[in-house]
Amino acid sequence: MHSYKVVKKTSSQACFLLIGFQIFPNLEDLYLESKDASALLRSLCPQDFYDKLKVLNLFCFHDAHATFPIDLLPRFPKMENLIVGCSDFKELLPSRLDGVEKHAIVLSSIRHLELDSLPCLEHLWKSNSQLDQALQTLGTLVVQNCRSLIYLAPSRASFQNLTNLDVRNCKGLVKLVTSTTAKSLAQLTIMSIKDCGMVTEIVANEGDGIKDEIVFSKLEILELHRLPSLTSFCSEKHSFDFPSLVEVTVRQCPGMKFFSNGALSTPKLRSVNLTKVEKKNLNTTIQQLSTQTKAQIAESSSS
């Protein structure tokens, strides 16, 4: 065999880690707990020691002052998947970060970020001009069971290559993204927001009074499930263009009265599934657009 994959490792001794990498030089997937990470940070090893590692799992950092081991990441320059779970971090990336550029380079290689069962997590990172651009290559973002999460990302965060956004059971989340961040989601194909009891809108108002056109160029599927506080996708008068959207599902969102206040375009919309929603008020635009789509199909069929 030319490659090996380790799903879980229980020893907390640095020597075990070093020997393990010598035995399995093509190791691609590593599971670390708090003591393991500390041991690895103290170890001395060649710069290219972990060059083949693609998946890093960080779990069980249970401490009142637990901090995400950001200094560990530069050891894995080829890492593409970062999975963090069952820990007490308050933030993923610290506000005061030494060597921001070095860490930003490592973060820029991450394609898949999954955060699960982080009850103390309040934000991924606070507003920082360099870190706001650090996850530009991220393709998949999964956030679930993070009950203290206040907002998904700072107002100027950009996710230009994000294709899949999945947020579930984040009870403290009020608004998902700002209009600035929304404008960066040109590659997003699936957005799924479920079981977030405090969410009032998906695209939040930044309070600058500017009404922009926001284009979700590749979004095909939009799922909004069990969001009892949701009143709209966006309450501001931004215009929204969904040129690729084919399916919208809104389930158990009893407070949702309309989709958006601005102009709305969904030329390819095929399916609108609504349950426990004021259908007559869910932006009659949605229903009108469905009618328009049928008319367009009929017209193209007859021509």
TrEMBL record:
Keywords: Plant defense. This is Uncharacterized protein LOC105118400. The lineage of its organism: Eukaryota, Viridiplantae, Streptophyta, Embryophyta, Tracheophyta. InterPro entries: At4g27190-like_LRR, LRR_dom_sf, Plant_NBS-LRR. The keyword Nucleotide-binding does not apply. Residues 45-155, 156-257 form the Disease resistance protein At4g27190-like leucine-rich repeats domain. Signal peptide: none annotated. It comes from the Eukaryota. Pfam families: LRR_RPS2.
